[in-house]
Write a structure and sequence with these properties.
387 residues; alpha/beta; Urease, subunit C, domain 1; TIM Barrel; 2 domains; seven-stranded parallel β-sheet; five-stranded mixed β-sheet; 10 helices; 23% helix; 25% strand
Length: 387
Amino acid sequence: MNHTLIRNGTVYDGSGGGPQRVDVRLVGGLINEIGPNLPAQGEDVIDATGLIVAPGLVDMHVHVFSGIGLYSVDPVDAGLRTGVTTMLDTGTAGSLTYANFARFIMPAAPEDLFALLNISMIGCIQGHPDFPPYMGDLNDGRHAHVPSAVECVKRYPERLIGMKVRLTSGLANYDVKNEWAGFEGVFEAAEQTGRPCMIHHAASKIPTEVVLKALRPGDTYTHLYHPNPDHCFDEHGAPLDAMLEARSRGVIFDVGHGVGAFAWRVAEPACRQFGFWPDTISTDLHHFNLRGPVVDLPTTMSKFLYLGMPLEAVIRATTSAPAAAMGLADRLGSLRPGLQADVVLLRHERGSFPLTDVEHHVRHSPERLVPVSVAKRGVWSACVGAL
């Protein structure tokens, strides 16, 4: 079906506004028309009664360079089957490996797949403590090679939208000089290429305030609610002043749930008591969290519904907000005529649903979101629903 009319759904356009009772017409891979009681024009009609109609979900933190390293899953595991139509691989590839990502993985994926280039030439291929030898991206500071990164972005400008660094002491052979090489290198490469960067900073020897003050408008701080002592909140759960200053100048704060970066004991006071909600909600989906605690993006979205984030804000943080952060707002992330016909149908279920954080703590939520079906450029496929 490439010419469809979606009727009777509860429509959230991704802007953060409230729901609307309108119809959505998709024609030729684009959103053609949105409005009440649209007349059928011979197209296939989808009855979305009881369902949420939203822009196709955008996950701006995944690892889907399948076939390389320890972490990556196939794009199919993170994409359309979960309602996600666009993904950003965040630093799995470095300048030595990106060519194969661009040649073999990206063209084969039905989703739109973009990437941040790891400042480390080798990328994110190792560095899990349970799989020795424990060596990370910056195990040797020479891996943070700016000229190679800049040349790679120049060679592949279309889908390489920015730079990435993982600042964790263990991923730098516990040598702060290696971390500094990655920290300084990622900003230098970003400046030279005119692109934003994403900073992973957890259990690092570089002070949190130093990282926050270095971030520029449009840069992203990911792993927002990680449980390590160097997170961005004080002992009461209030955001640090440097964090508030960073947000005021346009720094983006991203969830990046992962296997070690979302703890209820950090997120609950930060969100509920101090109102520091994420700008973007992402999974950091990879091999070590696909079967839990992450599972998929709708499950991560459900965790923020449990915390009290309004549904329209949760949808915005997984559609238009990440699309804007990726520089793609003129193509996707919203339900607007002329944009790509990327649409997801979600079921908003009520009951009691266990949601687990990275410390194996469980909360039982009275609601969750489950993907039902999805359109990518107007072509529909079924989702797997809750696993």
